[in-house]
Design brief:
140 residues; mainly alpha; 69% helix
Length: 140
């Protein structure tokens, strides 16, 4: 048996949901579209349910809850993925900045008559590779 599509306004709060949501909020438009579509489907839902037995939860209520759940989950995942994208971008910018500063420092040493770029590269690259392998002497 099909349950009725009754919407409780003041079940858990003294304020109506209409008082909590601003008049220009996008959820109001989504709610109106959803209500129109579900009103058109109401007769189909009635034919699908038996006329005897215990009343069920109205399918309109179940579909509204599912739609709300999808909106919340998609919003949460959007913000999570957006935050992850920003973090990746920040890490890439930091790596580029560090690489740039290392290149500037190497060029500065060359301009002041210090070690050549090749020697600087060998000492930093080969030295770090040797340290990773556990070797004591890195310079050849």
């Amino acid at each position: 048996m099909r349950g009725h599509d009754q919407q409780t306004e003041q079940m858990f709060s003294y304020l109506l949901p209409e008082q909590r949501v601003p008049a220009d909020h996008p959820l109001r438009a989504i709610r109106q579209m959803t209500d129109r579509v579900l009103a058109r489907l109401s007769q189909k839902f009635t034919r699908m349910y038996s006329t005897i037995g215990r009343p069920s939860i109205a399918p309109e209520n179940l579909l509204r809850a599912l739609l709300l759940q999808l909106l919340v989950v998609s919003t949460v995942f959007f913000f999570r993925s957006e935050a992850a994208r920003r973090e990746t971008e920040r890490q890439r910018e930091t790596a580029q900045r560090q690489s740039y500063l290392a290149n500037v420092a190497a060029a500065d040493v060359n301009l002041q008559g210090g070690a050549t770029a090749e020697a600087t590269w060998k000492s930093t690259t080969l030295g770090s590779a040797a340290r990773k392998r556990g070797c004591e002497a890195a310079d050849n």
